[in-house]
Design goal:
mainly beta; Neuraminidase; about 35% strand; disordered N terminus; Pyruvate-binding protein; Quino_amine_DH_bsu; signal
Length: about 475
């Protein structure tokens, strides 16, 4: 990675009296925690079925959500399955989905440039208080799919692809399999909303404990009726519904905290001509609507983030770049407006004429920005999947907003391929862009209430006096 050249470009850009829209101001890597290199803070020990550590830190850019201040929550997907292990379960393991709480220290230097230091502060495992369905492993060459950490009142979700009830369709919320892909924080700061590819599902979890609070009923059009632990078999065995491994890839929450807006990665089996589904969910009532989004140059969508209650940025990308042994081409954010768009619930086929309004050109072209900063297109991560607005900053007396973008490194810390025969680091990476109101008219920041970090909840037992001291100390540090 051309770090010196990148730093020089960033300093020159920030020293310029005129800012271009969406300036790249900092990059940062997260390669470990206080528990060790590429280890998270779950406290899990031992290894998964494929030999990977149960506490392996990776995949952080599958989903990224701002939690207020300099706190973000990163969301790994179903776990380390990029290395061949057992094709009968799509190389998946009993990896437990988890929330990774990160402090993003974005600091200005005397020279006017910025540095980003991501620090993992806690890991929260996701579970259900009611029983879930796990695969027996019979005939698949693997053991039971239930995580060993399960207790009488905690049933942990898992990345294992066979953890489902074959007698019901894929929207069954009692299935233990979960492939999280996007996350947003509630306005009160106490819970998170997570979207998934397996169901697809949209669940609400308690942010401090990881317990599932609520399951939202999604439209039946998204379901597949014939389930299989092998994704390709699910694709071949269903004429309608989401395509395996391309379910609810993105999730937004409107700034008022009242509406969730999910987006499916690829067209449903019954849809054609590059149209993917957007699903809005009224959080209070659970009422849903569906809209169509027409792809431009990307092969799919990886995330969506709310500008306001009707406009959104959509992360459209291909799968090219570092990790794919190819050259990155399409990593673009488009602006859409759902105002006046037709509800396509109950419709199928070519939905192009009903698609939401979309900017003719991308609002942000990540490949163009990074290559201009001296990063080779071969070194740009293939899976740019996490998008989140962040805290405001002040530069030269001017308030600027921030946009954070993260990659999913598939839990693979080093890539060795024909593009990089000597090997190249493939960390969890974060890119920070700054912009003004003029760059993104109508932008409204989500107002998230401050809550104690997950690890401080244990202090509740120690009394209100201790909590007050802790809160005052955090406030002083902030």
């Amino acid at each position: 990675m051309h770090q010196k050249k990148l730093l020089a470009v960033l300093i020159a850009a920030l020293a310029s009296p005129a800012f271009a829209s969406f300036d790249l101001i900092a990059t940062g890597d997260l390669t470990g925690s206080s528990a060790g290199s590429f280890a998270d803070l779950s406290g899990l020990t031992g290894t998964l079925e494929n030999g990977a550590a149960a506490n392996l830190l990776g995949g952080l850019g599958s989903g990224l959500a701002w939690a207020g201040g300099n706190t973000f929550i990163a969301l790994p997907d179903r776990g380390p399955n990029a290395v061949s292990y057992n094709a009968a379960v799509d190389n998946t393991t009993s990896y437990i989905p988890r929330l990774q709480t990160i402090t993003m220290s974005l600091n200005a230097s005397p020279a006017g440039s910025f540095t980003l230091t991501p620090t993992l502060t806690s890991t929260t495992l996701l579970y259900s208080t009611t029983a879930l369905t796990y695969g027996s492993g019979a005939g698949l060459g693997v053991g039971n799919g239930a995580p060993a950490r399960n207790t009488a009142d905690k049933f942990y979700f898992s990345g294992r692809s066979d953890n489902f009830d074959a007698t019901k369709n894929s929207l069954n919320p009692n299935n233990a399999r979960l492939d999280p892909e996007s996350i947003r924080v509630s306005n009160d700061g106490k819970s998170v909303f997570v979207s998934d590819e397996y169901g697809p599902y949209v669940y609400q979890f308690d942010r401090s404990t990881g317990a599932r609070i609520k399951s939202f009923a999604l439209p039946s059009e998204l379901a597949v009726s014939r389930l299989s632990p092998i994704g390709q078999n699910e694709i071949d065995g269903n004429a309608t519904g989401r395509v395996a491994n391309k379910g609810m890839e993105g999730l937004a929450i409107t700034p008022d905290g009242k509406t969730l807006v999910g987006i499916v990665q690829a067209p449903l089996k019954q849809d054609t001509n590059g149209n993917v589904r957007i699903v809005t969910i009224d959080i209070a009532s659970g009422t849903t609507k569906q809209f169509a989004y027409k792809l431009s140059t990307g092969s799919g969508v990886s995330d969506i983030v709310a500008i306001n209650d009707h406009e959104f940025l959509v992360d459209e990308r291909d799968g090219k770049g570092l990790g794919d042994n190819s050259t990155a081409k399409v990593k673009q954010l488009f602006k859409i407006d759902i105002t006046g768009a037709q509800d396509v619930s109950g419709l199928s086929g070519d939905l192009s004429s009903k698609a939401v309004t979309k900017s003719a050109a991308p609002i942000l072209d990540l490949v163009a920005k990074l290559t201009a900063a001296g990063v080779s297109a071969k070194d740009i991560p293939a899976k740019i999947e996490g998008v989140s607005f962040g805290q405001d900053i002040v530069v030269g007396g001017q308030t600027r907003h921030t946009l954070y973008i993260a990659n999913d490194n598939d839990f693979v810390s080093t890539v060795t391929d024909s593009n990089h025969p000597a090997g190249i680091a493939n960390p969890n990476k974060f890119y920070v862009f700054s912009f003004t109101d003029a760059d993104l008219p109508g932008y409204q920041a989500q107002q998230i209430s401050a809550v104690p970090e997950p690890e401080t909840y244990a202090m509740l037992l120690a009394g209100l006096g201790i909590i007050g001291v802790s809160a005052r100390r955090r406030a002083k540090r902030g």
